[in-house]
Structure formats: structure tokens, C-alpha cells
Amino acid sequence: MKNKLILTLLTLLFAFAINGQSTRQYVSLSIGPSFPLGDFLKTDLNDSTSGWAKTGVALQVAYAYRFTHNFGITAIISYSGNGFNIAQYKSALENAHQDTMFSVQSGSNWGSGGIMVGPYLRFPLSDKLSWDFRGLVGFYGSNSPRVTIKATTADGEKLPEYFRQAASAISFGWQVGSGFKLKLNKYYVLLFADYISSTLEFNNATGWDWDNEPYETTFKQDISYLAVTIGLGYFF
């Protein structure tokens, strides 16, 4: 099912690209900060939905085709890299176990991305400036961070390391956004803010627990963030 969805989205993207008309389509590359929201941002040790995500970087590659003066369709390949909040996690562990000192290491970030397709509305503000709104759905995936926790009790005893390997998941996601396009010769300067969200189930999470025993578990994570990006687009 997921492979069919990817193939369908790529086929639509290719079809629009080869059948476009002059000045009705553009491609763009944008970059900017990614601000985690909701459960993805949460830092509660007692809440398994906490993502402990930090502000990261967002990348977007977009293709858009305009059918009429105000209406078109767009496809976006997006990526967000968000670090694991080591400082907050360490502080939460030490508050919960005040007789123990902890060291937290993260070998990788939350790496999330996907491809989505949907309509967009364009409202010209002048001959060169337009205000756009877009809504997209598609397939989305993520890799969770790799985390190692070391602990030492107050009397100097070192406990076995707790280790969680990176896990991966894929599901459906959605994106809504709004922004401005400024026309410069054959280029657009773009400034957009997009809300991106997906609920993912990681069913291959493995590691070593505090008893020095291997484990395998499943967990769900709501990933949502605000991407504020600026970029350059070429229209044709």
C-alpha cells in the first residue's frame, strides 16, 4: 500500500512537470528553522508521548503547477532534523532519582521527512507579489534518536548502561501552510510557514535495559512542527 502511494505521488509529479505551460509552474528549494510542537516538544519523564525534540532545521523541495489564475497543485518533499534534548532529559532523571548522577548521550537526531501532494490557492497582491495557501497529504516517516544513559549512585556504584537504538516508522501525514512569493525575473523569493504533522508507530525499538538485558518494544510518537523557510524558486 505504501509503495503504491509513493509511486502514485511520483507519477503525478512527473505528469505535471512534462505537461506544464509557460509561467504556470515552478520548482523551489527552501530552508529554515523547524520548531517542534505538542507531544514532539514535550519533556515529561512520566509521559511516554514526550518526544524531547529541540529546534532544528527544515528543508523543502517543492514543485507547483497552476491550473487557473488562483488555483493549482503542489508536491513537496520535506525533511526536518531535530536534536534530542539531552539537558532536559538529564535534569528530569536527576529530579526523579536524586541519589543518582546521570550522563545522557545522543548519537543521532530525530530525522523526519516525506512527500506530500495537495492544492494551493494564490492571491496576487501586486504584479510581483502573491500570498499563497496550501494543504497537502501524503506519506511521512521518521527515525528516532539513539540514546545512551549512564548512571552512578551516590556511593559511587556504576549501574549498567541503558541503551536505546534508533528506530524507524512510516505512516501518513499532512501539511498546511501559507506564505509569500516575490517575482524577480525568472525567479521567486519564497517565505513560507508550514505546520506538518504525523502519528507514527515505531515497532522495532530495541536496546538494553537497566538490568543489562536486551529488550524490544513498540511506541507511538506524534511528530508535529512548524517549519519557517525561505528559499528560491525558478518558474517556467
Overview of the molecule:
With 236 residues, the protein is mainly beta. The protein has a single domain (2-235), classed as Beta Barrel (Porin), CATH 2.40.160.20. The chain has 2 helices and 11 strands.
The CATH topology corresponds to Porin
Q: Give the SSE order as H and E letters.
A: HEEEHEEEEEEEE
Reported for the largest beta sheet, the result is: 8 strands, antiparallel, barrel
Poorly predicted ranges (pLDDT <50, ≥5 residues)? 13-22
CATH class: Mainly Beta
Cα distance spanning the termini: 34 Å
Supply the number of structural domains: 1
Strand order of the largest sheet: 1-2-3-5-6-9-10-11
Rg, alpha carbons = 22 Å
Give me the secondary-structure category: mainly beta
Oligomeric state of the chains in view: single chain
The general outline is elongated
Summarize the SSE layout with pairings.
Blueprint: H1 2-18, E1 25-36, E2 56-66, E3 71-82, H2 86-96, E4 100-106, E5 110-124, E6 129-143, E7 147-153, E8 162-164, E9 168-184, E10 187-208, E11 214-235
Task: Briefly characterize the structure.
By secondary structure, this protein is mainly β. It is built from two helices and eleven strands. The chain has a single domain, classed as Porin, CATH 2.40.160.
Features:
236 residues; mainly beta; Porin
